[in-house]
Amino acid sequence: MNILLLGSGGREHAFAYKIANSPKCDRLYVAPGNAGTASIATNVSIGITDFPALKDFILANAIDLVVVGPEEPLVKGVADYFASQEETKALPVVGPKQKGATLEGSKDFSKQFMQRHQVPTAASATFTKDTIDEGLAFIRAQQVPVVLKADGLAAGKGVLICETIEDAESSFKEMLLESKFGAASEKVVIEEFLSGIELSVFVATDGKSYKILPEAKDYKRIGEKDTGLNTGGMGAVSPVPFAKGAFLKKVEEKVVKPTIEGLKKDEIDYKGFIFIGLMNDNGEPYVIEYNVRMGDPETQAVLPRIKSDFVDLLYAMGTGTLEDYDLELEDFTATTIVMVAGGYPGSYPKGDAISGLENEDGASLTFHAGTTTNPQGDVVTNGGRILGITGKGNSIEEALSNAYSRVNEISWKDVYFRKDIGQDVLNYGK
């Protein structure tokens, strides 16, 4: 098959790595891609929301399957666009249509979906500028900490955990009155705080059946011991030691099945990945959020653990034949360390030369995110999160050792990474 993959991050490089290694893939194109995808696929300089240009490329290059990496084109209706065009209406697309993508595009929509279909989640209420006084009264009635969520897409940064009522009130006003997260915070969801330990469960579905992929735990804060500003993600581990069989069985029965059945009941045509952000609260799963695509950096730890053919999985999702797919997993552990530009998640420079990329070994994988090549052909920084280094091993300790060994071989000016990824799960329950 000729396959087109949309996106340019570490998640997309991990997708490209798995797709390119499948005998089912003839040609792989990535739009727009990065320096890592360029080494295993053909990068195409088309924007991920330029739907007419993407359609023209699909027709000119006999594309058989489209895989959508990030959320933005899904929320903006890329799958609907291809389905509405005569020449591409039969094209399999991995990624939900716009209505399904609203599970991520609107926190309010997803909370209502969970409540409607009895999916366990935190109690919440949604407010706008017009109901700001009711929102402030609602905040004053809460226990601290109080969780505030921008309703719309905010690049993973639209969630605030406020330790005092005063902080919650002022942040709530900033979000609604001063557009703290732009249009994303025209509505704000106020939510009770769930205590416990987080993890992510990933589900592949064709709208009828589903397969549960390996779970992962990611690390959002820029600082060690989960301090500092939120980021897109600083690392991940898979599998998660505290997510044993009994807990994952509860996740399937109480969360995954009602979610898939809820999509059917609401007549939402969903062919794609569902990322379920969960809190393990004393052995009970509660949904924090849905995302309508794979996570980044969790993908870099999850996909290497899929043993069965990945293109077969994607094609089965896109064509409604997932029931016949046999998902096989590797038994090793994978841990991902994200290397970022100095200054991230604030302002940061671009164009710094990266050294040490040539020493790849079998114990780790290097996934590019914010990279490009300069006119001289050197790989340089081109974003906030630059690389994700995934170590493999028979234990978390071994996987982390292999990941950090590779991290320490790579450098650029003001490189930064967390040195404590995975330590909390190593010490969990001790």
UniProtKB/TrEMBL annotation:
Domain of life: Bacteria
Keyword Repeat: no
Pfam families associated with the record: GARS_A, GARS_C, GARS_N
Recorded metabolic or biological pathway in which this protein acts: Purine metabolism; IMP biosynthesis via de novo pathway; N(1)-(5-phospho-D-ribosyl)glycinamide from 5-phospho-alpha-D-ribose 1-diphosphate: step 2/2
Gene Ontology molecular-function annotations: ATP binding; metal ion binding; phosphoribosylamine-glycine ligase activity
Residue ranges the record marks as coiled coil: none
EC number: 6.3.4.13
Keywords: ATP-binding, Ligase, Nucleotide-binding, Purine biosynthesis
GO annotation (BP), single: purine nucleobase biosynthetic process
Domain ATP-grasp: 111-319
Top-rank EC class of the record's enzyme: ligase
Family: Belongs to the GARS family.
NCBIfam families: purD (TIGR00877)
Record's protein name: Phosphoribosylamine--glycine ligase
Biological source species: Echinicola vietnamensis (strain DSM 17526 / LMG 23754 / KMM 6221)
Gene from which the chain derives: purD
